[in-house]
UniProtKB/TrEMBL annotation:
Gene3D superfamilies: DnaJ domain, DPH Zinc finger. GO terms for molecular function: ATPase activator activity; ferrous iron binding. Residues 2-66 form the J domain. The keyword Metal-binding applies. This is Putative dnaJ-like subfamily C member 24. Keywords: Iron, Metal-binding, Zinc.
Amino acid sequence: MTLYDVLGVSQDASETEIRQQYQELARQYHPDKSAVEGAKEKFVQVTEAWHVLGDSQKRREYDDQLKREKLYQEFPVSEELFLEDLERDREEGVYLHHCRCGGHYTLAAQDARNSTEKEVVVACDNCSL
């Protein structure tokens, strides 16, 4: 469950939408105003979600974390490397790294230059190790 799920908003919700939803849920689950079982715990969850999603810097960091977690779930990660760890094949215009299965991880030099991401996931051309 993500912090967005806790507040019941979508990941692309505006700051205003997040604030409004937080205020509504905080009123609904405030321990002094709610007799609902588990209200205190829900209030704590809602407040923690607001502290992250209500702060633009913390929200960006959280979104980056969600993105990394999603990538790691979709692709098996057997190694984490720096670009300097890869061999450069200037003729082919690619960076290579040998996989333990005998295949290669291949990253086009153009993709490496144009990437706006700090991390890039590259799959082996021969396996799913």
